[in-house]
């Protein structure tokens, strides 16, 4: 894979042939997906959804010592308000002096649509440099400048000669893709093109000492980059670090909450370890291409099976399989004993999960191992990275899979039919799902732990607590409603998915 010479990465509809519209069983999805027939499926009616600019900001807003310039009308990026506090607190967990999110918007208006927004972009970047002196100024391009033809790359190239901060253009215009996860590629593309060069002369003295050279080589040969995601908590990171360090390895964490200058040292590691292929394949493939650093990309460490696999994959690279086997056996044994008391309560409870394909499938596997019945899944998109996880899910011929970014009307219809005992969902969907009276458990949260063995225990413990007394959510029935006519609930939930051009 080598797209780095291009100004912008391809969208995932093209690069991964990803699908964003499907309704059927897990089995059918697996079968049709393998044939490569899902890419052209369309909706004849669609509700709005998040765009790749907004998802790009979820990562970019975490980066320390950077200023984010959103080149857009004022509404784009408005969702950053909801993450500003989280970003600041989590940055401070890494660096007590961190300033938190600093974010400017060029506030494009009607006049700029006619006359161009280039001057506003220029002055925003110069203001960011003079006012904040950041390590990087990250310029996020939106639909409007892309449509009116602002040449942001030429402007930013020109500005780079005048200022010391590294300028990072991110091409994440929302209209270009229906697969929000294209955002991850846009962000990594900007980082790969602009933040990897090392400053000259750094650590020159270290490299002049032979012993230090050997020490440095050894440290590097035992160092793992764990690639985090913005939906992870600090506890998730600590749990994964605990497990990898138990193998005698060093850990560094990228990209979320790293400082902009830290990316120059991303190659000082022996292995890149992803926790989610949806997030990282673009980055790890390019780093392998550029520096020859191999990667682990197979599984997400959620649930016992997937956590075991994640650790064993890392250990295999370093020849530490025996140590890893002992570690996972001991951890999994302790966890199974701790989970046993919850089984009676959870057995047979019906659950529906909605969110990113990798998270919902791994969480489903954990809940099935507790005796719960998975009745439906809604994935934001689907691509080949989900196939191995889909195969871990039991009873897949009877589980409905809806591929839909957003599209709450399809989910509302499905939930009405399936009547699950519990909904496990992505941020942003839980509110409207609660209005249907279903008990809710969030699929992730930045103040709880979900990953590794400790995370598996916490997921189960908290779900058991939610199910113990769901009366608060049940009381919504009859007191609130979603904005759909009753006739909609009588129709096929996948009425508006048109697969005639694809299958
Ligand atoms: S779709 Fe375009 S206009 Fe809408 S928020 Fe995203 S970048 Fe802005």
UniProtKB/TrEMBL annotation:
The protein, known as: Nitrogenase molybdenum-iron protein alpha chain
MF terms in GO: nitrogenase activity
Protein family (similarity comment): Belongs to the NifD/NifK/NifE/NifN family.
Superkingdom of origin: Bacteria
Keywords: Nitrogen fixation, Oxidoreductase
Enzyme class: oxidoreductase
UniProt signal peptide: none
EC number of this enzyme: 1.18.6.1
